[in-house]
Design brief:
The complex is a heterodimer of chains A (494) and B (434). Chain A has 494 residues and is mostly helical. Helices cover 55% and strands 3% of the residues of chain A. A two-stranded antiparallel sheet of chain A has the order 1-2. Chain A has a two-stranded antiparallel ribbon with strand order 3-4. The longest helix of chain A is centred in the first third of the chain and has 35 residues, at 87-121. Chain B has one domain: Alkaline Phosphatase, subunit A (3-Layer(aba) Sandwich), CATH 3.40.720. Chain B has helices at residues 11-17, 30-41, 79-84, 114-121, 140-149, 159-168, 218-229, 240-262, 274-287, 314-336, 402-413, 418-422, and strands spanning 57-63, 73-74, 96-97, 108-109, 125-132, 181-184, 200-202, 294-299, 342-347, 368-373, 380-382, 400-401. The longest helix of chain B is centred in the middle third of the chain and has 23 residues, at 240-262. The termini of chain B are far apart. Classes of the chains: A mainly alpha (494), B alpha/beta (434). Chains A and B meet through helix 4, helix 17, helix 18, helix 21 and helix 22 of A and helix 5, strand 7, helix 7 and helix 8 of B.
Chain lengths: 494, 434
């Protein structure tokens, strides 16, 4: 991978970098990065532990005890009521349980708000972006596990390993209560193995379909027996663990879960699978069929895989090389991805500097657009790209952007939810406009900011026309222009 | 019109010139392309069986919160019903008796469901008794997911979403118009969320459009019209940008058609209830001939833990709303002469416990009856009422798996492979006559 010549790094490249390694940037941020050049810019985004950490809003208020398992006393009370066929008492105990579940659902909604706020406000956008990447990669849904605190712990796990070591994350994920519950490993017991985690660990988390045998799954499941949780922590139950001989990828030993992960990480397929996942997230969609990939793309993915192996699965150095490569900035890879709902919502706020408005409204809209944070549709995560888009989601997308710009709430949402006025004039100041404002130049700059390097002539005429007919470039007409731009189909690209 | 110049192509020109150009144009709205293909392939729009057009429609009514099935279809002939429900039981005198066949004997509808009874008398209502699933889950959230996904763990894509995924895989033909699935409501139900297919969801037709058009003048309207209908000159064919433009065009057309459709006054008077208004919208869209195959409406409030009443009261009001809305809907469809194209199915995530609780209400239970409506249902009561004494922890035991009902609807009504949608084969319940 040839690095990009520093001279080639300008406004458009800085903009591209900010979108892919974060959620877009304001004109000011773009210009700053452009002046820094690719090396310093990528370092600043990637070495986020040097950036002040970000704690608000507080996560300490989350309650880890709402869904705690029933105490000995509670268990006995239920048992007794059952024995005595005391229907009223059983119903009462059931209602208590249901009340706790309701409270837990409230808490998971608070966590969604908490995470969305982090994405919007964090000075370390790549940390949140990678947390989102891992959430999609190790997809776990609250719907199934019904334990918000476990979801929170998993989210923090992803954040703490965001650009860290993939291997360490894989060792950690087989100890993560949310994952263990989601893929039934708490029911994976010596003599009655449950293969769910063993299978997905290879198929979706590390190797890809077909890169292992059914026998590897069976033996891997035996290695994972006894890996469970107790309350909010990992628990290994030796009496549930199968300590016997196993054969995984043709090697024999008395393997446990860690040995299974070690065996996976030593496979070349693992680096190739992860390389492709990273490429898809940061660069562009690629055909699943390897023979259909262009040579340049195939070579870059191969290079990422070899970088991963060389760096023993440290993500940071691999991303550094990728984000500084000429290939990453190739025009065919710019505006080539379709924004996920999170990128659309957070990116509009971060790049245009709109108010963040009502988080509940934004989260409902994200759900409608197909991305409900902490509720991925299945263990496969979100398919992304074109699957985000249909006739219905396009309106939600245009309307949520319009809500951010104008304060007019999107379809069906609370009409009074945060409708404060957005002042877009700061944007023009950042784009280095003085008192003299030329419709053509202003529309050109706004479109370059929102749609990337080469907006079409039609779009330029459209916005220029609007300014000319309005006869003025003021907050009102700029807001109008921005809500039109955000409703353009190509605004969905990044 | 120069078809090779994408700029020359606009929605207005397209609509003026019609579908004849569909095969030649660079960017064609999907539904028109589909329509053009369908016309080319089949001699007529309607199917071979007289009176039964191929483009069949399913309308799903979800009764959210857990409808009390025992106070909906009432086993008045069973004394244990009154023993379990001394306060909220519906007395024999008031209720609407069904008939005297073996499965009907001793059963009556709630007194406020006269509308439903008239459908029953017209042979348009099928009541499937004791519908549920193994190891019933009593959480609203979970059990709703189980019904929506047809999966016992309640995970995966929605069953209707999978139906459209299979149907529309790799092709955008007739019935895959971009508005093949419409849910009335603020959010789209999981049932309709497929891997790739997503329903259109809107609470009122005004919301299925760009909100930037409100309170803005013709300048903004014209700019918006122009920009959603023309392909930017720098979008390469097959690129994400051209895919987006095409979908935007589809959306614009669907939006126009839907808003035109529901802007027309219905042929009959609907009750002013929420459900009535939702069903009026659905009937208008059917009347306008939208390519929509599945509509979905929801009536909430069935979580009657306290003071649910009996002949009158909160549960009775919900049943009345349901019955009146549904009756008006079928009157409308009959007046439109579209009733033969439509099947309606109602369900709730669970029934309620047999015994009333200490607050004059009922707690979460399990099995309950399901309704299927339309001139093509197999009318009457299907199956026996589950026993009121042989219970599972105070709840009715199910006798019919809901996936058998789905399977019957998929196989016999939507003419598709039920196992392909449901993941495995379930014996199709015989709910559809043809």
């Amino acid at each position: 991978m040839k690095p990009l010549e520093p001279a080639e790094f300008g406004f458009d490249q800085a903009r591209h970098l900010l979108w892919r390694a974060g959620f877009g940037g304001t004109p000011d941020q773009i210009l700053t990065l452009a002046s820094w050049g690719p090396g310093k810019s990528v370092d600043a985004l990637l070495d986020f532990s040097d950036t002040e950490s970000y704690s608000a809003p507080s996560a300490r208020e989350f309650d880890g005890s709402i869904m705690r398992p029933p105490s000995e006393r509670e268990r006995r009370a239920l048992q007794q009521a059952r024995q005595e066929q005391n229907e009223n008492e059983i119903a009462r105990l059931r209602r208590i349980r249901q009340e706790r579940q309701r409270e837990d659902r409230r808490q998971v909604r608070d966590m969604q708000r908490w995470w969305l706020t982090r994405m919007i406000e964090s000075p370390r956008p790549l940390e949140e972006k990678l947390t989102l990447f891992w959430h999609g990669h190790f997809a776990t849904s609250y719907r199934t596990i019904e334990n918000s605190y476990h979801m929170f712990q998993q989210n923090q796990l992803f954040r703490s390993h965001a650009a860290g070591n993939f291997g360490e994350l894989l060792y950690a994920i087989i100890r993560d209560p949310a994952m263990l519950a989601y893929l039934d490993n708490n029911e994976n017991i010596r003599g009655r193995p449950n293969e769910n985690l063993a299978r997905e660990l290879m198929e979706l988390f590390s190797l890809g379909e077909g890169e292992y045998s059914e026998r590897d799954i069976r033996e891997g499941a035996r290695a994972l027996t006894g890996y469970s949780f107790d309350g909010n922590g990992f628990a290994f139950y030796p009496n549930r663990h199968d300590p016997g001989q196993k054969s995984i990828f043709g090697k024999r030993g008395e393997f446990d879960g860690d040995d299974f992960v070690t065996a996976i990480l030593s496979r070349r397929d693992c680096s190739e699978f992860m390389a492709q996942k990273l490429y898809r997230f940061f660069v562009a969609e690629v055909p699943g069929d390897r023979s259909k990939r262009g040579r340049a793309v195939a070579n870059v993915i191969k290079q990422i895989a070899s970088d991963l192996r060389e760096n023993r699965y440290e993500i940071r150095p691999v991303l550094r090389r990728l984000l500084m490569s000429e290939h990453f900035y190739d025009p065919s890879n710019v505006m080539a991805r379709i924004k996920s709902p999170a990128e659309l919502v957070v990116g509009t706020i971060r790049s245009l500097g709109t108010p963040s408005r009502d988080l509940g409204t934004l989260l409902s809209a994200m759900d409608l657009m197909g991305q409900n944070l902490l509720f991925p549709p299945s263990v496969k995560g979100w398919d992304g790209e074109r699957s985000w888009i249909n006739t219905s989601t396009l309106y939600v997308r245009a309307n949520v952007a319009n809500y951010l710009v104008t304060g007019r709430s999107p379809a069906g949402m609370d009409p009074l939810a945060d409708d404060r006025t957005y002042d877009p004039m700061g944007l023009l100041a950042d784009l280095r406009f003085g008192a003299e404002r030329d419709p053509e130049a202003v529309s050109d700059r706004l479109l370059r900011l929102a749609l990337g390097a080469s907006p079409s002539r039609e779009r330029q005429w459209l916005i220029k026309d609007l300014f000319e007919q309005r006869g003025t470039i003021d907050a009102e007409s700029v807001r109008e222009a921005l809500s039109l731009i955000c409703a353009m189909p190509e605004y969905q690209l990044c | 019109m120069d078809l090779h110049n994408s700029k020359a192509y606009t929605r207005r020109v397209f609509l003026q010139q019609g579908a004849a150009l569909a095969s030649a144009a660079v960017t064609i709205p999907t539904f028109l392309q589909g329509a053009a293909e369908a016309l080319a392939q089949t001699p007529g729009v309607h199917g071979s069986r007289p009176g039964v057009p191929d483009e069949r429609i399913l309308v799903v009514v979800q009764l959210a919160g857990g409808n009390d099935g025992l106070n909906t279809v009432i086993p008045y002939g069973d004394a244990s019903y009154y023993r379990a429900r001394p306060g909220i039981g519906i007395r024999e005198e008031g209720l609407i008796k069904l008939g005297s066949s073996r499965t009907e004997r001793g059963l009556g509808l709630h007194p406020r469901m006269g509308g439903l009874k008239s459908l029953y008398d017209d042979g348009m209502l099928s009541i499937v008794q004791g519908v549920g699933y193994p190891n019933p889950n009593r959480s609203h959230f979970k059990s709703t997911d189980i019904w929506h996904t047809a999966d016992e763990g309640g995970t995966g894509d929605g069953w209707l979403g999978r139906f459209f995924d299979n149907k529309c895989a790799g092709q955008q033909g007739a019935g895959c118009s971009g508005h093949e699935a419409i849910a009335i409501g603020r959010t789209a139900p999981l049932a309709m969320q497929g891997r790739t297919s997503r329903p259109i969801a809107f609470e009122s037709e005004d919301l299925f459009r760009w909100t930037g058009l409100e309170d803005s003048d013709s300048l903004v309207h014209e700019a918006y019209e122009q920009m959603t209908s023309e392909q930017p000159s720098n979008a390469a064919p097959g690129s994400a940008a051209s895919f987006l433009t095409r979908t935007a065009l589809d959306a614009q057309i669907a939006s126009d058609r839907i808003r035109d459709a529901v802007g027309v006054r219905p042929l009959v008077q609907y009750p002013r209830s929420r459900l009535g208004q939702q069903l009026a919208m659905v009937a208008s869209m059917i009347r306008a001939g939208l390519e929509t195959r599945v509509y979905y409406v929801t009536l909430g409030g069935f979580d009657t833990h306290a003071r649910q009443g009996n002949v009158n009261g909160s549960h009775a009001n919900l049943l009345a709303q349901f019955s009146q809305g549904v009756k008006a809907f079928w009157d409308d469809l009959k007046a439109q002469n579209n009733d033969g194209r439509v099947l309606m199915m109602s369900f709730s995530e669970f029934g309620r416990r047999v015994a009333q609780n200490g607050s004059g209400g009922t707690d979460h239970g399990a099995a309950a009856p399901m309704f299927l409506m339309g001139p093509n249902v197999r009318p009457g009561v299907v199956g026996d009422h589950p026993s009121l004494t042989d219970l599972d922890g105070g709840d009715l035991k199910h006798t019919v798996d809901f996936r058998s009902v789905y399977s019957g609807v998929l196989e016999d009504w939507l003419k598709t492979d039920g196992a392909g949608v449901l993941g495995r084969g379930y014996r199709p319940a015989k709910v559809v006559r043809i």
